[in-house]
Amino acid sequence: MIEPIKWKNNKIIFIDQTKLPERLKYARCGDVDRLCEAIKKLEVRGAPLIGVAVAMGYALAAVNSKEKTFAGLKKDLSAASKKLRATRPTAVNLFWALKRMEDVLYNFASCPAGQLAKLYRVKKIILQEALSILKEDKRMCVSIGKNGARLIKNGDIILTHCNAGILATAGQGTALSIIYEANKQGKRFKVFSDETRPLMQGSRLTMWELMQNGIDATLICDCMAASAIKNKGVTKIIVGADRIARNGDAANKIGTYGLAVLARHHGIPFYIAAPSSTIDKNIRSGKDIPIEERKKEEVIYTGSKQTAPVNAKVYNPAFDVTPAELITAIITENGVYEIKRFRRI
Ligand code: MRU
Q1: Active-site residue among 242, 249, 280, 320?
Q2: Which ligand 1 atom is at minimum distance from the Cα of 239?
Q3: Is-above-0.85 flag for pTM?
Q4: Regarding the domain delimited by 150-344, which CATH topology (the fold level of the hierarchy) does it fall under?
Q5: pLDDT tens profile 59-107
Q6: All structural domains of the chain with their residue ranges
Q7: CA–centroid distance, residue 50 to ligand 1 (Å)
Q8: Whose CA is closest to 287, among 238, 322, 261?
């Protein structure tokens, strides 16, 4: 299986996802500013992968710090954390991972030792924590896949949106992990992937990785989802999430909410697959989830081709919130949680 992110010789190596599907290109990143740029431009994307990336970015800042005192290192790390926090606002995994990294530093602060020995040890522990987050993410993907695969039946036709697969995590994905596990279990099913305008994560990334992994996948434009559900017999919708509020409202790639409405109308289940680190216990409902708005050029241009007047007014939210009442169940590494008994209407 490909690895979208790795730590090698004190550098972060990641797949530049903006180059897919034409080229599978790895980029080498040696400083936090370059990593921040990669996250903002979606070279590295997907909520769990962003979490792993910022943890590694924090470790990179520790390794690169030239400070000779613990206080100096803390200053460097807090500057790095501030930059990483400002990259993307919606995926809570980013803030969750940085909190874990910062806790390591603060728990270490009281450790009695000489300055230099302390600096060496804390840098080592910070790196270990980032690598633990990476390893846990891989395990979590498999557990989500196994929990969700129980819901897949022979003959299912599954619709997915955006990319919640290998490329969005350090492992085998969340929504797509379910597909990979069900496939391993020998279940026979088909997948439809929305192309996911404006940045095409569905056509560029999901189609690429499903085809690489031998899954029977068909690409549709976003506007074809209703027709595919009605005329091609879609039986369930499975997507990922960037942040889930305490009441079960879930933010995911723009277009997800519309799919949940469609699922309800057509009487098919709508599932969210996400690690427990995507649940934001500080947020009561979806109203409090910050939604990233991206630049208008992403809508005015399709790739490098201008497809709208350059001075067009544009609304470009990167995510929407699906209310809990439209979600059949949330699948995490810990199990399948039914939000409200699914009713066929
Ligand atoms: O803007 P992106 O590509 O980072 O958005 C990604 C999504 O919306 C995914 O569905 C979500 O992060 C879940 S990834 C397992």
Answers
A1: 242
A2: 10
A3: yes
A4: Rossmann fold (3.40.50)
A5: 999 999 999 888 899 999 999 999 999 999 999 999 999 999 999 998 8
A6: 5-142, 150-344
A7: 9
A8: 322
